Amino acid sequence: MDPNSNTSISNTRNRNSNWIGGTINTSSDPSPIPHTTQTQTNLLFSSPPFFFLVLILYPSRGDATIMETRDDVADASALPYSYSPLPAGDAVAGRPATTTMVVPGVVEMEMASRGPEFGVSEKTSGAEEMVRLMGGAAGGEAFPWSNAMLQWQRTGFHFQPERNWMNDPNGPVYYKGWYHLFYQYNPDGAVWGNKIAWGHAVSRDLVHWRHLPLAMVPDQWYDVNGVWTGSATTLPDGRLAMLYTGSTNASVQVQCLAVPSDPDDPLLTNWTKYHANPVLYPPRTIGDRDFRDPTTAWRDPSDGDWRIVIGSKDEHHAGIAVVYRTADFVTYDLLPGLLHRVEATGMWECIDFYPVAGGEGVDMTEAMYARNKGVVHVMKASMDDDRHDYYALGRYDPARNAWTPLDAAADVGIGLRYDWGKFYASKTFYDPAKRRRVLWGWVGETDSERADVAKGWASLQSIPRTVELDTKTGSNLLQWPVEEVETLRTNSTDFGGITVDYASVFPLNLHRATQLDILAEFQLDPLAVDAVLEADVGYNCSTSGGAAGRGALGPFGLLVLADKRHRGDGEQTAVYFYVAKGSDGGVTTHFCQDESRSSHADDIVKRVVGNVVPVLDGETFSLRVLVDHSIVESFAQGGRSTATSRVYPTEAIYANAGVFLFNNATSARVTAKKLVVHEMDSSYNQAYMA
168, 288, 384, 447: which is the annotated catalytic residue? Predict the structure, then answer.
């Protein structure tokens, strides 16, 4: 096989057609094996268009080229219902037919973003995972996890399927009184695979979930290698259109359309793929495997048509966002120029593009028609290079098809992150029931793949978070757990008023400490702060020693999932602030989360994560921490900064798990002005019963 031969697609216009694919023959038999397109039986059919196939054989390479040329193209068949504003019968009228060439070849092996094609799930660095799969753990022997340890890791109130692998949240939407969450799912095991389907669950309150049958499976040539990430759009008549990325039988990334088979079904149990998928192919200037994850569509008042954004990268390894216009979700025009581009940021996955304002959520289409000058637009991209979600605030000019950041120094990929820990491939949706924007994020595992297989599942979704503009700073988003999470609170204990001397630890007496919602506000001794002339101006969460380090004004905060037996080497996860003071008297606050002592196991990833968080005059150091077995989600300063960790204690579990206040500063006492610990009930999600 020629490792330099890549699948390629060229087209002059992204016109929907009954595209004929081809399979790659990797055996010594040179005979090409054509793949026959199978349409969905739920759709109405038109007479098939006239075409002919030209097969070119390469006996020495064992691949095949399949070319489709159309002399006459019939209109697309009607969808189960019409798409506003055009009826389905007229949706493609008058639009010229195009010639599409498909050249399947040998796909170059590389570390693909939906899980490396070596068969290794995205865990840590890829290289370390390969070491583990080859028979050992990076940095030591594989830890001998007991069944009790592995069972303890399963969460009580975070969303996760009953078993197997999960990654990106897909198509979240509110429909006929139900919240829907779709997600990338491998029904065959606890590792990523090339047959990813869409899992599906529904909820009345974003907390208690009912699992449903798989919404879509990879059963067509255009998505046989995976039904990948997509987004839902609510049409003016209340019905839904779902756009998603399909990975074809030649590993080309194409965009596909699906609709509910029964729009009257509030559970959206069954879905119909459009018979003439794909509706979008990669444009000539974009790689065949760099074209994925369409956004929710919005309408532009200038022409009444819809817009979607898709992420990619250019030949210079700059991340880019491109915009398409469509009147019917079937035929698309690529708008000239780029919505945005940032040098050296690589492939942009899972782009999200939406408006924010203070106080409540904003629907994108409503914002476009209202032209509210107080609205700014969030551009978010999941960076394939470093596996983090970056966002920036900016201004959107639809007439120019351009988005410009408010601060070029904090542009997408070089500035703020949604979360400084384990959080990726996130997606928001507008909730019309409560006029809020809700954010989901994939929280993957950081243990070994071997451990995932042993426990039978991998990955969580973050707690759903509301997203608003921080009007006090004007430069940040505020993320906060949806209010429904508070319904799970049970026993509550108020520890407010405790003062912790420097170099001290204070235990909190709790009944259980593995499912918690903790709210805290800390205040440093103001006299001690004034007495410090300069301290730790070069501090960095990731490189400055973590919670064990000592400075004049920090670290101080909480130790969660900490061994109650309080041994010197006991397991603990630290969530804390660290205050640095410059010679000019200016104070900088760091919000950090230290996983370095979270587990005695050495075949897991343990880091110190975090960054600077704005603390304004008159504000205390405020913190909210959600503890749910193997996940710790923390929110600082009302959600200006967040950090999520996956942790795998071996001893600080069940009754041995505890919580401590700690102050490792050398010159200042700290007082917990407010400290309320709520024990949390489980959400007891309902399994699907066939």
Answer: 168
